[in-house]
């Protein structure tokens, strides 16, 4: 099929070469080649390809997802993939892989929470798929408040076993992925009791199913929790344990230990047992980038080939991408996807470095990385889901079809603001950290890390520093505005907290009565962080780009900063970080920048280099022939393989012939 001329012209008139930017996104031309090879191995494989999933039943999708998971294992062995390759493969399949919790949580939990003997025993079994596992933490009654977990593990000194039980409905495990039908084992988080003393939430390895018959073991009641909005293939489950006994060495004992005679000891940081969640939060940041890149690719290409209506009366119908309002739906998502790229790259290296320190028992970096990973998981998933919905609607009627590729991406991504810590709760964790830093700054001590900008005193009366027109595209000056806004919102929340406390409210009550302001400050911190990483990326990852490409990536960053101010203008005005005249100029500048970026919109999404067979979209194919692909997809619907469906004989015909009764 030839390329649609409407999309070709976009590529011909772009001011830079997409491939240069693709190399930057991958890290190097070699890395691009390597990724393409991997994506081809996945996309071309009939067992992995997700082309027909929209026509499958729940059970068919589940089975296909198991087969996909297995095939990925075979490819991994055949092509010598490393862990990054494997995680990318899961992401490129949009997590449409049953048992992926085994990879992304069960194994990492054993690695992080187990001691050497436990590694030696369990990891080979898990890595070789001799056992399949889930991460069972959430209960029907508690997902967020982990200190409230009710499943009990009571140590029985006489037999050197833990007895695990589910005292009531609210204490059953509820939600763990792959628990329903696909796990033989669980890393199960339960509250440990020794002689009735509560020793906090601890991890245990519990076998759930017989490895030959797959039937639940005695005392284990397990099943699926029912159909969900999406993620049909991740069989989330429930679990009730009736006095199930496990040996003492099946408590994962890296950070807390129980001796044979029942002595409880702890090593490492208080929240070390939460470290698996931190890893997954980093992975979620990466998924947010990918989902947004997918959405932006589909909708930008579709907007460049769909013509509807006229701008100049009587002139030919225009591409919908030429409407300024459509640009406002599409361009922010492109700019955000690029900002998220820089941010997730930073986060990956930051996590690896800090994890290495933790492995050496240096926990000093834990509070900051907990703040950053919690905040970015929350912020990036909030923004990604909001923008995906805007993008989906930007496709008009066809945005409601499953074959468009974006609907599925959107509803899958909708899980991310909830999993691994509900977003509001995570913002409140960030706020805790902000308040601590505020206290440090107030004592005159230097605040370190991502909030070191708190050390600079904001002069009053304040001026924004935006003097010349050039200042409005100076990303460092714009970043300063964001930083000042964050500091002021933090101070405002801190002042409110103190005021309530001084007026007699206990600290916890004052905290709850300030939580809206605290969350607002936390979001500002996250937005500032992402912009900071975007700017850092310009001078690190993007610095070797040819001049024309660097200019476009720079424009995106400026737009990201300006657009963010227009979206959050209330915060910027309220904190006095800009005045109304400056806001008007910023709005104007943002619109002008958007018009410049529009010219390169298709080339910018081409640079994400997501192949058609992973994009899986009728609207967003590289060739721009959306109408042909929509028609082909409709024709391939199994319901269209018969000209007359059985419902005709059964119901419609009798009705037409007046033979129907009210009882049907
Ligand atoms: C693939 C997708 C599948 C999905 C899987 C899932 O969803 S799996 C299920 C996913 N489930 C979830 O994600 C559950 C979400 N819930 C949680 O993570 C926790 O219950 C909580 C963090 C909300 C509160 O916890 P709490 O009541 O025990 O804590 P607190 O309020 O008493 O004290 C807070 C103190 O602890 C610190 N700290 C906290 N976390 C960490 C950390 N990771 N590291 C380091 N530190 C951490 C924090 O800085 C603060 O320090 P401060 O200020 O005192 O010096
Ligand atoms: C698709 C999916 C997959 C999942 N996979 C797993 C898995 O593999 N393993 C696992 O263990 N779990 C899993 N979960 C569970 C998930 O981690 C929890 O649902 C999540 O942590 C939110 O907890 P919750 O359901 O208790 O929400 P709740 O805490 O009940 O949230 C409800 C509301 O209460 C608010 N709220 C709660 N506490 C506070 C507070 N302190 N301050 C202010 N507001 C508050 C929240 O902001 C939210 O608005 C999964 C969930 C989903 C949807």
TrEMBL record:
Principal localization? other
Q: Name one GO molecular function term.
A: acyl-CoA oxidase activity
Cofactors that this protein relies on:
FAD
> GO terms for biological process?
fatty acid beta-oxidation using acyl-CoA oxidase; lipid homeostasis
Q: Where is the signal peptide?
A: none
Q: Which positions fall inside the Acyl-CoA oxidase C-terminal domain?
A: 475-657
- Residues covered by the Acyl-CoA oxidase C-alpha1 domain: 274-435
Any single Gene Ontology cellular-component annotation:
peroxisome
Chain sites annotated for binding FAD: 138, 177
User: Where is the catalytic site?
Assistant: 420
Pathway, per Swiss-Prot/TrEMBL? Lipid metabolism; peroxisomal fatty acid beta-oxidation
Q: Where in the cell is it found?
A: Peroxisome
Lipid metabolism as UniProt keyword: yes
The record's family statement is: Belongs to the acyl-CoA oxidase family.
**Which protein is depicted?**
Acyl-coenzyme A oxidase
Q: From which source organism is this entry?
A: Owenia fusiformis (Polychaete worm)
């Amino acid at each position: 099929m030839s390329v649609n001329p409407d999309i070709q012209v976009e590529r011909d008139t772009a001011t830079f070469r997409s491939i240069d930017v693709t190399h930057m996104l991958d890290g190097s031309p070699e890395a691009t080649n390597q990724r393409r090879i991997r994506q081809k191995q996945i996309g071309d494989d009939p067992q992995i390809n997700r082309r027909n999933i929209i026509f499958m039943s729940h059970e068919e999708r589940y089975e296909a997802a198991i087969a996909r998971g297995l095939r990925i294992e075979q490819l991994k062995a055949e092509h010598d993939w490393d862990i990054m390759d494997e995680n990318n493969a899961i992401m490129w399949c949009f997590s449409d892989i049953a048992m992926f919790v085994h990879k992304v949580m069960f194994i990492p939990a054993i690695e992080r929470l187990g001691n050497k003997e436990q590694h030696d025993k369990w990891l080979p079994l898990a890595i070789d798929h001799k056992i399949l596992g889930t991460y069972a933490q959430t209960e029907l009654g508690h997902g967020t408040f982990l200190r409230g977990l009710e499943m009990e593990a009571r140590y029985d000194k006489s037999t050197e076993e833990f007895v695990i039980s589910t005292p009531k409905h609210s204490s059953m495990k509820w939600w763990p992925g792959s628990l329903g039908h696909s796990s033989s084992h669980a890393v199960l988080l339960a509250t440990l009791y020794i002689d009735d003393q509560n020793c906090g939430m601890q991890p245990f390895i519990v076998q759930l199913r017989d490895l030959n018959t797959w039937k639940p073991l005695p005392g284990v009641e397990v099943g699926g929790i029912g159909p969900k909005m999406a993620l049909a293939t991740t069989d989330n489950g429930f679990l009730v344990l009736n006095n199930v006994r496990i040996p003492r060495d099946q408590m994962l004992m890296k950070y807390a230990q129980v001796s044979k005679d029942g002595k409880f000891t702890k090593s490492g940081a208080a929240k070390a047992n939460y470290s698996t969640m931190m890893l997954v939060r980093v992975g979620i940041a990466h998924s947010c980038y990918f989902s947004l890149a997918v959405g932006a690719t589909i909708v930008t290409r579709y907007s460049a080939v769909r013509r509807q209506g006229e701008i100049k009366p009587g002139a030919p119908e225009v591409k919908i991408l030429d409407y300024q309002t459509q640009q406002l739906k599409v361009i922010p998502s492109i700019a955000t996807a690029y900002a998220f790229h820089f941010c997730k790259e930073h986060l990956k290296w930051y996590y690896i470095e800090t994890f290495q320190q933790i492995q050496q028992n240096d926990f000093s970096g834990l509070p900051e990385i907990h703040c950053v990973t919690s905040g970015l998981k929350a912020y990036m998933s909030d923004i990604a889901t909001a923008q995906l919905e805007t993008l989906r609607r930007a496709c008009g009627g066809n945005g409601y079809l499953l074959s468009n590729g974006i609907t599925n991406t959107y509803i899958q991504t909708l899980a991310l603001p909830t999993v691994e810590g509900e977003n509001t709760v995570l913002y409140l964790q960030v706020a805790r950290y902000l308040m601590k830093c505020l206290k440090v700054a107030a004592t005159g001590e230097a605040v370190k890390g991502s909030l070191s900008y708190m050390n600079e005193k904001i002069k009053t009366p304040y001026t924004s520093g935006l003097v010349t027109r050039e200042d409005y595209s100076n990303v460092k000056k714009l970043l300063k505005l964001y930083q000042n806004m964050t500091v002021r919102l933090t101070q405002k929340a801190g002042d409110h907290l103190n005021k309530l406390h001084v007026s007699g409210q206990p600290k916890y009550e004052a905290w709850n009565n300030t939580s809206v302001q605290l969350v607002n400050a936390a979001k500002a911190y996250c937005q500032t962080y992402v912009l900071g990483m975007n700017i850092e990326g310009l001078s690190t990852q993007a610095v070797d780009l040819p001049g024309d490409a660097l200019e476009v990536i720079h424009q995106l960053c400026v737009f990201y900063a300006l657009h963010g101010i227009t979206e959050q203008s209330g915060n910027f005005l309220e904190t006095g970080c800009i005045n109304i005249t400056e806001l008007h100029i910023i709005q104007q500048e943002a619109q002008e920048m958007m018009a410049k970026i529009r010219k390169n919109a298709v080339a910018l999404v081409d640079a994400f280099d997501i192949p058609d067979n992973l994009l899986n979209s009728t609207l967003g194919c590289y060739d721009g022939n959306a109408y042909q692909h929509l028609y082909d997809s409709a024709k391939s619907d199994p319901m269209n393989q018969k000209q007359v469906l059985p419902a005709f004989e059964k119901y419609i015909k009798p009705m037409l012939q007046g033979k129907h009764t009210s009882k049907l």
